[in-house]
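ok so i was messing around last nite and threw this chain in just to see what happens. nothing serious, just curious
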Amino acid sequence: MLVDSHCHLNFPELNANLAAIRQAMTENEVGHALCVSVTLPDFPQVLALAENNANFYASVGVHPDYENIEEPTVAGLVALADHPKVVAIGETGLDYFRLTGDLEWQRTRFRRHIQAAIACGKPLIIHTRNSPEDTIRIMREENAQQVGGVMHCFTESLDVAVQAIALGFYISFSGIVTFKNATAIKEVARQVPLERMLVETDSPYLAPMPYRGKTNQPSYVKHVAEEIAKLRGISLAEVSTATTENFFRLFKHALA
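result:
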């Protein structure tokens, strides 16, 4: 069995086809999915998916790409996370690729998420793009190691992965690892300890080969796991077992 540790099933292109998506998950032995929040207004939709589907879980958070929207507070995030199907805080983090200029507001928002995660005892889902130094620095300054979490859709160097692992974080690989030109990420996937690895789709984005350019969905996480197995010279079953056990070890509230 596999787990899609990061997807956005509330997005219209997926939510409209939920029955077919669930059937495809069953056919591809994808047993669970974590539906990830990116803004506060969309959180009720994310939570409803988790409440209405026994094998779905939810997170609560505000993505760093969203500027000039309702800012989360520590107390507000903690209150929303007080639900048995909410297993994580995020996604949160820093993104210096899509936005430029004075991004102190991103760093402040990131700090609030870490503080909320510590307050409620739930792990973090961290997005970092073109910002590894500041991301790791803030994780250390805010003591993110107290709760740990996952560096989702990882595209940074092995050194950044090692630093995150030292803080108690897992490294999650998406469909990017299947792309022919993703040589650096493939090497990181070879080197990261299997016991610190997760797999994800980030659907509807980043569909793996052979579906690149099409709408992604949780069942395609099998292709991510297959590529990692190929890169490491191990079986798909080994990757599936390890990443599923890792998921439930990290998101322990999913077992409650």
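not much to say yet. The longest helix spans residues 104-120.
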